[in-house]
Design a protein that fits this description.
Blueprint: H1 6-18, E1 24-25, E2 28-29, H2 30-40, E3 45-49, E4 54-56, H3 63-79, E5 87-96, E6 112-122, E7 127-136, H4 148-153
Antiparallel strand pairs: 1-2, 3-4, 3-5, 5-6, 6-7
Helix pairs in contact: 1-3
Length: 170
């Protein structure tokens, strides 16, 4: 029998996946894109309500990020065979502040510290929380390579060549 404490593991998994390089928006790292948006709005944090599909401060054109968050939640709940009805709220907060990491660590390549906090509120009003920290630079397309996934998602799927046949003799 699964228990709601399993939601702690869901929060940990979502936090780890959210800060990974696989979290991209239009082919660029999602955290860097959020960092840029925070700078442009003069904010120190960005809050995402996954179930309500809102981002604060408002960030246009981040539907891909919301889809990524929703799929993370669904895949974790399915993997653990947990009921999605147990979740009342899933909030992801990304804070950008110099105080987050040890201030004695030197700054590298224009990168600033960030912390990603995932809070799941269950149907019993208990909070399950996890956080991850790291460093990022604001999104700058002139310095970044775009993920090939962004290009692949815009192209129609190609049939997969069968590889179970013996190679042709020469």
């Amino acid at each position: 029998m699964t228990r709601r404490r399993s939601l702690n593991g869901v929060a940990v998994a979502i936090a780890g996946s959210f800060i990974s390089r696989n979290n991209d928006v239009k082919g660029y790292w999602g955290i860097g894109m959020l960092c840029l948006q925070a700078q442009q709005t003069r904010s120190t944090s960005v809050s995402i309500d996954v179930l309500e599909r809102t981002i604060s401060p408002h960030v246009p054109d981040f539907g891909d990020l919301l889809d990524f968050c929703s799929s993370l939640l669904q895949s974790q709940m399915d993997a653990l065979r947990l009921s999605i009805t147990w979740i009342r709220k899933l909030e992801i907060v990304v804070e950008f502040s110099q105080e987050i990491l040890n201030s004695e660590q030197p700054r590298r390549n224009q990168e600033d510290p960030f912390r990603c906090i995932v809070r799941i509120t269950d149907d019993l009003e208990r909070i399950h929380e996890a956080s991850e920290a790291g460093r990022c630079a604001p999104h700058d397309p002139s310095r970044e390579l775009r993920s090939m996934r962004a290009e692949a998602s815009n192209k129609p799927l190609q049939p997969i060549a069968r590889t179970d046949r013996a190679p042709a003799e020469r």
